[in-house]
Each structure stands twice: as C-alpha cells, then as structure tokens.
Description:
The structure is a single chain. The chain contains 7 helices and 15 strands. It is α+β, with helices and mostly antiparallel strands. The strands form 3 sheets. Strands 5, 6, 7, 8, 9, 12, 13, 14 and 15 form a 9-stranded mixed beta sheet that branches. It has a 4-stranded antiparallel beta sheet with strand order 1-4-2-3, with no helix packed on it. Strand 12 (about 210-220) and strand 13 form a beta hairpin. The mean pLDDT is about 90.
Amino acid sequence: MEKQEFKQSFTADKSDFGQRFDQTVAKYCTEVSRSKLQDWIKKGCVKLNGEVITKARVKLMGDETIEIDAELEIAGEWQPQDIPLDVVFQDEHILVINKPAGLVVHPAPGNKDGTLVNALLHLDLDLKHLPRAGIIHRLDKETSGLLIVARTLEAHTHLVAQLQERAFEREYQCICHGQMVSGGSIDEPIGRHPQSRIKMAVTTSGKEAITHFRLREKFNDFTHLKVNLETGRTHQIRVHMAHLHYPLVGDPTYGRANYAPSGSSDRLKQAVRGFKRQALHARKLGVMHPVTQESLSWEVAPPEDYTELLKVLQQENPIS
C-alpha cells in the first residue's frame, strides 16, 4: 500500500488543561481516526514540546506544542475495477452508496480486489489521494446498506470529525433468534475476543459501545428490530445481540447459522438455514453536509433475501 507523509503541528489551548494527550491530539487532528492517532503515539510519531511521548494517558497543562510526523496509508496501489455500484446520492464532495451484501469494503489479504474501494476508484480515480479512498465508516462484508464516502480532503476532515463526535445518525434493522419482550439499550464495552483473532467480544478491557434497539415485529421464535448505534465498534450489533442471547439469524460467527426452532415447518427450516449471512441491513444514514452544512438523510429498503426471510417468518412463525 502506498504511504503519504503526514505532518501537522498545533498548540493546545489553555482549556485543554488536564486533558489526555491522545484526546487532545484527536481534537485538533480531525482528519485522522482516533485509533490511527493512538497508534502513531505508541510508535513515537507525536511530540509534545519537542519530546516524543508514547503514553496516550499523559495529562496536559495547556499551551503545549504538539507535532505529528507520520505516514498515512493511501489507496495508491489499489486498482480501479468496473464493479456496479448503487449510488444513492452524489455531488462534488460526497458519495452515498447502498452496499450489497457480499461486497468487501477494503482490500485485505484474501480480498485483494473486487472490493468497494476498487469500485470507487473506477467511479472516481481522484479518490486514490484520500485515506481509505474516502471511505469514512465500514460495513461488514455480509451486511447490506448505506455508507458515505468523501471525495475531497475537506469533506473527509469534516465527516471524520462528525463520526468521532457521534453526530452521524445510523439506523439498522436486523432479525434475531428468540422473541424479545421489549426494546432497550445495551452499554457494554467491546474488544478483541480473548481466544479468537477473528471475533470481537464484550470485555471489560474493550472500548465503550452503546446500542439502542426497538421492536419492529415479533414472531414466535424470532424478533425483527430497529437498531441505532451511538458508537461504531467492529461487529457491534452482532456482538451486543449475541451477548443478550438474541444472535442474528444467519450469523456464522456469533450466532447459530444452521439453527431452526423445533417444530418448524419445512419452509421455515429451509428459509432460516438457507440464509447464509447475518440478517443485518444499514437502513438509514444521516449527516451534516461537510461543506454546505445542510442536514441530509437517506433511507434504503433491505434487499430481496432479507424481505423474503421476513415474509416466511410472518407466514410460518406468527405468535401463537
């Protein structure tokens, strides 16, 4: 992956007295994610009054000079590929994409091409000059729905800041195993699973994660939910629902992918066992336009496989 030199300096304000080093760096350097900034601090890429500081929790006095000298990965070596995209909205500053299930967002080992990044570069080659080709937030490979892409560095900076300030409106819908009595919220930290490198888990050493959920429809053995994210941790909805013992239908990592309740009709068994991805869709996305400051919102219905599963549940698993 191509790397670009990233240098920036700024002075902490007196109001930053008592604030953590990493939080202050993130406050002033909004075009880079907090996790990346924390990584740079650990690697010695950030100086405080000319001295390298590798501890993120150091408290500031205010009026310090902070300097960043690091390298930022950009999409230089990724190749454009003519992959059809469902573009919900676009102007010269942003793109909003309705991502299909099965499309990987970023190239990685095992998925070096055929990704959303490759498709975006075919749509707009200038995106190669932006971090992650302008992609602001991710969706899992098998999750469908809306995500936003910046087309300029200015737009990228403002959108990353909104995401960090939890100003994005992100509404999902999902289908879970089990009949919930009511909606609610879960505030449980999420971090890497202690035994599995590919899984996340609720853990005291994790990062804050808050999920709000409301009932859309109840069935005898399943629940259809509306879910809003306050934070955006990896696999957050999937992990939180599994933690509550309502795993998502079809989830091969956190759920019971081939499970169908006893007494299910053949049609219900076939529908549930045949749903080969997590039943999760990013339905609604709301942001402040990074340039015009207009409040914008988009909504897309779930794909056919999701609606067909719902139809089967309505017909074959009504509340008895």
